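Ligand-bound model needed. zinc ion.
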Amino acid sequence: MIKQRFVVVAVLLATFFYSCSEDDTNLVEVPEEVPIVPPEEIIRIPVVIHVINPPSFPFVISDQKIHSQIDVLNQDFRKKNPDHVKTPDEFKDLVADVGIEFYIATKDPNGQPTTGITRTESDISGFSGDDITGELPIEEYKLFFTNKGGKDIWPSNKYLNIYIADLSDRWGRLGLAGYAHFPDKDPRVNAVVIDPRVFGTLQPLESEYTLGRTATHEIGHWLNLKHIYGRDGSCDEGDEVDDTPDQKSQNLGKPVYPKSSCGGNEMFMNFMDRVDDDTMYMFTKGQKDRMRALFNEGGARRELYLNTKEK
Ligand SMILES: [Zn+2]
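Prediction:
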């Protein structure tokens, strides 16, 4: 009996001291360069848009169209997209305000004023910024080099570089909507590539891609997110995020909830599945944590984060 009472007192004392010390930490001045970025801090990333336009069939990417895409990103990464309310009840508590915003760069790499948009006439394909063999030297990712027919990347530790470039298949139709390089990719090619037919919300656009969600998805990859579905139809190979349910394979088009695999309902409305633009509308809190971990001390986009704070 005495022993039990002692334990209760000890727990009460411990609680008291714990809450005191918690209060004390609030009084400590937070250093400028915090090793862990607080979850409520809004991170603002400058973006440069490189439009690579084929002279033979130029597409129209107006400044307005570019701004329409930035608006989409600032909704989707801030849980301000009106359609997030469509999230099914079982996933509603998981929907995250990722706390990341994007803006068109106002200073170029030399610190001079800029529109944040470059325009290049070239027949080079968007596919030349990627390498499916895994053996290509970085200098041969031609899309990212002016002297190879592309456009030089701006420092990827200071900007998110988005290339708008043709990703047609061999019949001239949309072959791929976009792709992105993960944070650990060589900085000389560390960028996102989007086809003009799926970029922004102003016409002309492909019918399944009218809401600018290709860029949301690809920037998710650029911020280290994997697809929410397993590879090769497996439930095991997940996305390393705890709060996205296991899912056997990708969804395309407009699936209808509920749809299940791997013992639960699929979260196909997640930005990291591959459904139509109007069928995806949420990131989870676990995905938010994974993305933002990049900006902590030792994270792969730590330098970018510190550079966003430069005046
Ligand atoms: Zn993807």
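Helices lie at 2-27, 63-76, 89-92, 213-222, 285-292, 302-308.
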